[in-house]
């Protein structure tokens, strides 16, 4: 009997013990679904291969360069940060002007002298803008149409620009304050400043361009929608989810839009020479004319960019970009020049030197570690728009290639100038 118990009952008990969990699992109720944030997984998946898609727009040599790979990673973060600011704070019914591109959000080649801010608006709404007008030569607001699948459009491009309006044309009171109404139709009996709003516009782009960073003062600006109650209700779950789901497309479009632009110029043969950049169809700033071209320089080489300055010119600048169209860091390098920072020679010709090493001349653009990149210039409100000539010289021959009256900038002076740039730029209102 004892032997029977050992040989039969013990294995049977063991089998029951083995089967019991499975049997219990079949009869037990299913575990509740894990709570999640609707749209988050789609956001992550939508951005997962974005660096690969952007790298694919570049030549193979750049795709395999670890430095370029990490700079593309940075570009992805810049695009995501810019899109995320809009996703968090963009509200057409309760808008504010938020940073969109610039020194930190360095996508789409921002101009070194321009502070860019964007405000969401609701098509058909009525808005009031108020603030101090400041003293900038250019303070313009453009209307931007739907993009990235917004408003029923299938476009994946930057929204088309509509009309631009000039803050400097507004009336101001004794304190320099303006007050303008923006709406599709002028309200009956309204006598104040008024701008007509395109019925399809869903954003306002503010460009504040400063030529003299130490003396010119940026405007202040507040925006509110006045045809709805002032208090903002709690955003709905559906609205917040839609913002999340909009992010992958918005980020992808911004990140990939211009990344291959510098290489495209190279393929067209514009290396160390310049051509017209026509942005009329993209809604560029009215009265602004662009030129651009690749540069390709060794450490012992320099480019001399020359053009006769137009007799009448409201603003001009020359900047550099890297190979993925980020503007070269102008806060911490001598990598941009405007009409207050660069003077023509006695013959009226502006001569700008582009090089990796400081040639000790006033009108120098520092490539800041980028042996290849792009030169871009702009003439704004000028009566002529010349395309500058470009010639390559040995770095050692720069001074003898310039007029004899060209000034000398010592290393100590250059260090002071860069520190002064940083001081003044950091004091401009970015938010």
Can you walk through the features of this model?
This protein is an alpha+beta fold and 431 residues long. It is 26% helix and 25% strand. The chain has two domains: 41-256, no CATH class; 261-426, Jelly Rolls (Sandwich), CATH 2.60.120. It has helices spanning 2-27, 40-48, 50-55, 60-63, 66-89, 237-256, 261-267, 411-426; strands at 98-99, 114-120, 127-132, 138-144, 161-166, 177-183, 193-196, 203-209, 222-225, 275-277, 288-296, 301-308, 313-321, 336-338, 349-355, 364-366, 372-382, 389-394. The strands form four sheets. A five-stranded antiparallel sheet has the order 1-2-8-4-5, covered by helices on one side. A five-stranded antiparallel sheet has the order 10-11-17-13-14. The longest helix is centred in the N-terminal third of the chain and has 26 residues, at 2-27. The model is unreliable at 1-25 and 151-157 (pLDDT under 50).
Q: Can you give the helix content as a percent range?
A: 25-40%
Q: What order do the strands of the largest sheet run in, or round the barrel if closed?
A: 1-2-8-4-5
Order of helical and strand elements: HHHHHEEEEEEEEEHHEEEEEEEEEH
Tally of helical runs: 8
Give the helix/strand layout.
Elements: H1 2-27, H2 40-48, H3 50-55, H4 60-63, H5 66-89, E1 98-99, E2 114-120, E3 127-132, E4 138-144, E5 161-166, E6 177-183, E7 193-196, E8 203-209, E9 222-225, H6 237-256, H7 261-267, E10 275-277, E11 288-296, E12 301-308, E13 313-321, E14 336-338, E15 349-355, E16 364-366, E17 372-382, E18 389-394, H8 411-426
Parallel strand pairs: 6-7, 15-16
Antiparallel strand pairs: 1-2, 2-8, 3-6, 3-9, 4-5, 4-8, 10-11, 11-17, 12-15, 12-18, 13-14, 13-17
